[in-house]
Amino acid sequence: MSTIQPLIESDAIARTATPLRVLAWPIDPGNPYTASLYAQMEQGLKVEAFSAGSLAHRQDIWHVHWPESLLNIRNPALAAFKLSSFLAMINLVRLRGGRIVWTVHNLRAHDGLHPMLEATFYRRFIPRVDGVISMSETGLNLAREQFPRLRGVPAAVIPHGHYRDEYLRCEGNARAELGVTADAHVMLFFGEIRSYKNVDALVRAFRHVRHSNALLMIAGRPKSALLAESLAKEAALDSRVRLTLRFIEREQVARLFSAADLVVLPYRHILNSGAALLALSLNRPVLVPDLGSMGDLRDDFGDKWVRTYSGEIGSETLESALEWAARFRPSICAMPDDYQWERIRSQTVSFYREVLKSR
User: Fold this and answer.
1) For residues 46 and 23, what is the distance between their CA atoms, to the nearest angstrom?
2) Is residue 277 part of a domain?
3) Is the distance from CB of 215 to CB of 242 less than 8 angstroms?
4) CA distances (Å), 105 to each of 68, 71, 110, in order?
5) Which end of the chain is flanked by fewer CB atoms within 10 Å, N or C?
6) Claim to verify: residue 265 and residue 312 sit in the same structural domain
7) pLDDT tens-digit profile of 52-103?
């Protein structure tokens, strides 16, 4: 026994000293979330962005984000091939002793192009998940409800971090620069325009808003030409609607938010929202549907900053939200500790180690 114990201790020390290897998919330099999450992780941890050659050596953790994005490929044969390849790579990582951690950003593919393929994918993917990260308690409960097998794997609630360090504050007169009058009541929708985000319904509801000096700004790149055409037709019926249908460069984002009184995100379905966090990071109150984790967001930031509504978006909801947005609130939205990136990185690394111990 005296001989075995030192061997066990030295082996444990060796394992501790070995850098933790984390494969991340994706790390997108254009996406502030992934860039912030993996920046300045603790010493002794090596994070590698997924590439064709990244599976040539063993990985401890493969941290997966947005696997459902492969279901947004329109060609069903190509989507099936990509998903099969993805699952085969997961098998390889696990065969070598690595573990799969999934951050649940969404519970379904946004575009809903391939429902049968989607059901097959999740049926094969979920049993291969060794640890799950949710951005809210509600999100975790919904994930476990939809995928009961997740109840048997380690889980952590780690919120979406803020964007305050990624977007500089607008120092000039944003409204003057955008040609917006000082007395306008401005609502802003910001982000990529996709069917599930319900922007066309927002425009229809806004047309019945009775405030003559109300203004709706919609800024973002449409997912398709058909969406752009449909939105342009809706907007043409009300001169108070202003469209900027293109990708918004990062240096222009703060100007748009600074000009707005209220950010409106009228999604048909939602689990988490980076756009809502962006609004709060830029000190703008936000109106969101009472779906997914939006209630958790309201509880964390308070009802002075986050307002939720039920049912379909309507003019009464918008008018009431405009009045709510006009009430006094601090000029700076206080950022809760749970949304600070240093804390989020630390919790994420701790969870990696928990998943590895659970094997």
Assistant:
1) 8
2) yes
3) yes
4) 9, 14, 11
5) N
6) yes
7) 888 888 999 999 999 999 999 999 999 999 999 999 999 999 999 999 999 9
Phi then psi for residue 143, to 5 deg, are -65, -45
CB atoms within 10 A of CB 25: 19
Question: What pTM did the predictor assign?
Answer: 0.91
Q: CA-to-CA distance for 214 and 206, rounded, in angstroms?
A: 9
Residue 286 CB partners (closer than 8 Å, separation 6+): 262, 263, 264, 265, 276, 279, 280, 305, 306, 307
3-state SS class at 155: strand
**Inter-residue contact 246 to 256 (CB < 8 Å):** no
Residue 74 belongs to domain spanning: 15-160+340-357
Judgement on whether residues 324 and 187 belong to the same structural domain of the protein? yes
The SS3 assignment for 222 reads strand
Q: Distance between the two ends of the chain, CA-based, in angstroms?
A: 26
Cis peptide before 26 (omega within 30 of 0): yes
Whether residue 296 is found in the same domain as residue 284:
yes
For 158, the token pair is 């780690």
